[in-house]
Amino acid sequence: QLYLKESGGGLVQTGGSLRLSCVASGRISANYTMKWFRQAPGQEREFVASINWNSVSTRYADSVKDRFTISRDYAQNTAYLQMNALKPEDTGIYYCNARTNWGQGTQVTVSS
Question: Is residue 86 a contact partner of residue 14, using CB atoms and an 8 Å limit?
Answer without folding.
Answer: yes
